Amino acid sequence: MSTELFVQYLFAGITYGSIYAIVAIGFNIIYNTTGIINFAQGEFVMLGGMIAISLLSFLPLPAAIALAVLLTMIIGALIEIIFIRWLKNPSVLRMIIITIGISILTREAAVHIWGENIRALPYFVGNEITTIGIMGARISPQVLWVVGVCGVMVAVLHLFFRTTSVGREMRACAANRLATILCGINPRNMVTFSFVLSAGMGALAGCVMSPITYSQYDMGTGLAIKGFTVAILGGLGNSGGAVAAGLLLGIIEAFSVSVVPLAFQDAIAITILLLILFVRPHGIFGSGEAARLKAF
Amino acid sequence: MAILSVENLHRRFGGLHAVNDVSFQVTAGQIKAVIGPNGAGKTTLFNLVSGALMPSSGVVRFQGKDIQGRRPYEIAALGMARTYQNIKMFAGMTALENVMVGCHLRGKAGFFSSMLHAPWTWGEERAVLKKSMELLELLEIGECAHVLATSLAFGQQRAVELARALAMQPSLLLLDEPAAGLNIYETAEVGRLITKIRDMGITVLLVEHDMSLVMDISDEIVVLCFGEKIAEDLPAAIQNNPEVIRIYLGE
């Protein structure tokens, strides 16, 4: 394989990989505060892109994206408040089925609002054919936007959890719910925050990826499966692991195109998911001992 | 003046009267202990006062407000901190971070300003850090500040838990068996720390099995047996109370 082709595949892999990582981190944030997998995570990405596209008719691009992210965060909060907050000690299975229901509901609402058309935001810089050369490969500037925005998001999130009071309280809630109550913190608010946070991250990722991958009402399911694979691969709840696993999956997918037909790309992700679930259910970066202590 | 008063408190679990018509008052600035044999209802009483359990009937009045039936985090926000018999640390966080979470109630930074790391939250963050460090120093575990809390020795974890409770700036501190699982040196140390906390002007209500600790530090003692209050007096008087001697030593 020539260097140009290699770099070309590598960048394609990193682009998709960073999106998977963001979706996986969205899973992790909610998993850490509630112990459930929110299968509606992919819908946040879809909503972010779709809302931004609609707003673009009234607003300039940056404002449309900012407002779309904000609206998706509000939707995330509403979903939590309406469907999850009032449940008293729900079982894990019940919560998961609720999130699958939310995902179907959101998708149906989206098809009624936006129809089945495939839409896209315009390229942030230049257009479809603008490219920049990196080591002989031709890369769209949007690729750098995706990678850059995802990278900044991960870094800001890390800072948020390490150095701010609300971030610390969310970690505390994940570590020991009872003890956070003793400190006068309402853990239900932390759960709402976690939905808001992962909705916002998903929506922003949905906006930056929209020019390359397009937005459609049913894009969430596929992303949720990939994101879930990555979250498991990196070890549930481990966001550093999710970044590494996301890039890994993206790159494997991209290079697989040179070996097997494009149509098999999704099959590869699902094969990896099954392999991991059979062989190392706690993920490559997770600890088996810690996994045994978790609810599932 | 009574900071906490419990009036005719009842709690039934099915046919069992875990707490049966218990009334007492805690005067501001004192250390009050609740003792009794196993199954006397001490921990249930604590759970009723701190909101972890709903009373079947009766009144819990804290600083003049009726608080029975309120949620535990609301009661904590009113200024009542508590610890549990088994230590509840935030795993994966350092001792210092554990204490900083306790400062939550005194913080003002909201979700969005925190998320954006807004400049006006930085000063508060520094103040929280300084305050938490001071509390660790006060409890004489300043050198453990940056160690993961769960890897500390048991007695040190107890001190971190006390520091975290103090970070809430409570007016009343409920301690459920603070000496449980500690050796005699650590027990004496915890006793000294509790006295120090009282001297800071914080009222302490504690449940404890270790009689030497209770007799040493308490200003007043309530004795429970099978859910009922059988005595309430000064430590010296409790030691000579025939009823108390009977339930502890048998006929």
Can you put this structure into words, describing what you see?
By secondary structure, chain A is mostly helical. Chain A has helices at residues 3-34, 41-55, 61-84, 92-114, 141-163, 165-175, 177-182, 187-213, 219-233, 239-256, 265-279, 288-293; strands spanning 132-134, 137-139. Helices cover 73% and strands 2% of the residues of chain A. Chain A has a two-stranded antiparallel sheet. Chain A starts with a helix and ends with a helix. In chain A, 49% of the residues are buried. Chain B folds into 2 domains: 1-79 and 170-251, Rossmann fold; 90-167, no CATH class. In chain B, the strands form 2 sheets. Chain B has a 6-stranded mixed β-sheet with strand order 6-7-8-3-9-10, with helices on both faces. Chain B has a 4-stranded antiparallel β-sheet with strand order 2-1-4-5, with helices on one face. Helix content of chain B is 38%, strand content 25%. Chain B is globular. The two termini of chain B are 38 Å apart. Chain B has helices at residues 42-50, 72-77, 95-102, 111-115, 122-138, 154-167, 184-199, 211-217, 235-239, 242-249, and strands at 2-13, 16-27, 31-35, 57-62, 65-66, 80-83, 172-176, 203-207, 220-225, 228-233.
Task: Offer a quick outline of the entry.
With 296 residues, chain A is an all-alpha fold. Chain A has twelve helices and two strands; from the N terminus they run H-H-H-H-E-E-H-H-H-H-H-H-H-H. The interface between A and B is medium-sized, with 27 and 38 residues.
Features of the shown structure:
heterodimer, A: about 300 residues, mainly alpha, ABC transporter involved in vitamin B12 uptake, BtuC, two-stranded antiparallel sheet, 12 helices, about 75% helix, B: about 250 residues, alpha/beta, Rossmann fold, 2 domains, six-stranded mixed sheet, four-stranded antiparallel sheet, 10 helices, 10 strands
